[in-house]
Amino acid sequence: MNILNSGIPQMNMSNLPPQLMQNIQQLKQMQAMCNGDINTLVQQVVAKNPQMAQAMQMVQGQNPEALVKQMCKQKGIDFNALMQALKG
To answer: How far apart are CA 44 and CA 73, in angstroms?
Structure first.
C-alpha cells in the first residue's frame, strides 16, 4: 500500500519541525540516487543495520498508513502535512 497516493488534502508544510523537513529532503535525495526504487534501498539498509531489520520485523503485516498516523499522533506531527511534504 502506498500511503503517499491516498488522496491527502493539500496542507501547509510549515508546521512540520525543521529536522523532519531535513530528513524528508535526505530521503528524497536517496530515492533519486536509487532511481526511485526505494524498496531496494530499504532492503540494503535492513541488510546492513540489525536495528532496522528488527524494526521492519515489528511492523511487518501492519497497515502502513495506520502506523504512520499513530507515530505522528505520538510525536505531535500533522499527518497530512507530513504526507504532503513527502509527495512534494
So the answer is: 29
Nearest Cα to Cα of residue 84 among 42, 72, 1: 72
DSSP notation for 3-66: GGGS-PPP--GGGS-HHHHHHHHHHHHHHHHTTT-HHHHHHHHHHH-HHHHHHHHHHTTS-HHH
Give the Cα-Cα-Cα angle 22, 37, 53 (nearest 5 degrees).
Answer: 75
CB 74 within 8 A of CB 3: no
Looking from the CA of 33 toward its CB, the CA atoms found within 13 Å total 9
This prediction has a pTM of 0.58
In contact, 85 and 21? CB cutoff 8 Å: yes
Asked whether residue 7 carries a pLDDT value surpassing 80, the answer given is: no
